[in-house]
């Protein structure tokens, strides 16, 4: 079975079942379990469905579970809050990826209004990312800051995930590399749920999953939304810098990310990113 053969709902079922310990649901741990987590039969009993039906769901052979079955499985898998909502969205989209509104591949073009925002934010570094984590546009301050990091090397649009997992420079300059790697893997997981029929997105994820570090972090049920945080960077020019960032939803599938270097300046003397106001288009 190919790496993208199962739908997201099936992947979630398998991953979540493996995470739950028998003791979490009042079952004895036992010594004869060959794999961690609950057995398929145990989840089926808890949800009130047959083990054969659950197997068909996990294998992607049945893609039309009823609302009652979705709720029963969510209860059986101890899902609450955002995880339960995410699980329901996956179930409703399973088998209908191509028919999902807005699921087609994005054109990835930055609107003039968003470009104006980037210019207005100058001298605060800011850039725009699309659903595949391609960097679609940026202002001069951001370019000045990231150019020494190697993020703008090469041809075509830079991609945050590809840089993090495939460029050796990323591990040298990102002191919290593991945290950043988790963030980008989770972002692509959320994108796959939202745009399950985007072939370009699926190809990007497929290629990244061939990298062992990304594969280890790929969790189809990871729903954490990192809209803010801090990058800890060993900058070749500015030295050690901790830069808080905020993410603003822009135009549908695009986000504007702002690096709050004014806060970083108070801890890093001499950090100045002011340049002529320009924007990459």
UniProtKB/TrEMBL annotation:
SUPFAM superfamilies: lambda repressor-like DNA-binding domains (SSF47413). InterPro entries: Cro/C1-type_HTH, Lambda_DNA-bd_dom_sf, MLTR_LBD. Residues 37-77 form the HTH cro/C1-type domain. Gene3D superfamilies: 3.30.450.180, lambda repressor-like DNA-binding domains (1.10.260.40). This is Helix-turn-helix protein. GO terms for molecular function: DNA binding. It comes from the Bacteria. It comes from Nocardia tenerifensis.
């Amino acid at each position: 079975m190919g790496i993208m053969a199962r739908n997201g709902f099936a992947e979630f079922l398998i991953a979540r079942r493996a995470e739950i310990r028998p003791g979490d649901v009042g079952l004895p741990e036992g010594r004869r379990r060959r794999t961690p987590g609950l057995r398929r039969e145990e989840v089926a009993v808890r949800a009130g469905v047959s083990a054969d039906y659950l197997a068909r769901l996990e294998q992607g052979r049945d893609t039309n579970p009823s609302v009652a079955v979705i709720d029963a499985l969510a209860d059986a898998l101890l899902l609450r809050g955002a995880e339960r909502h995410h699980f329901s969205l996956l179930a409703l989209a399973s088998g209908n990826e191509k028919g999902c509104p807005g699921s087609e591949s994005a054109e990835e073009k930055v609107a003039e209004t968003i470009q104006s925002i980037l210019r207005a934010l100058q001298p605060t570094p800011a850039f725009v990312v699309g659903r595949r984590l391609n960097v679609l546009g940026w202002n001069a301050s951001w370019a000045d800051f990231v150019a020494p990091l190697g993020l703008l090397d090469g041809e075509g649009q830079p991609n945050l995930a590809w840089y993090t997992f495939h460029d050796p420079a990323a591990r040298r300059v990102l002191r919290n590399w593991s945290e950043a790697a988790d963030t980008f893997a989770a972002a692509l997981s959320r994108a796959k749920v939202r745009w399950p029929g985007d072939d370009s997105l699926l190809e990007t994820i497929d290629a990244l999953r061939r990298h062992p570090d990304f594969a280890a972090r790929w969790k189809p049920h990871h729903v954490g939304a990192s809209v803010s945080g801090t990058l800890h960077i060993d900058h070749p020019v500015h030295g050690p810098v901790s830069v808080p960032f905020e993410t603003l939803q822009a135009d549908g599938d695009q986000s504007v990310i702002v690096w709050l270097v004014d806060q970083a300046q108070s801890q890093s003397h001499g950090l100045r990113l002011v340049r002529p106001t320009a924007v990459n288009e």
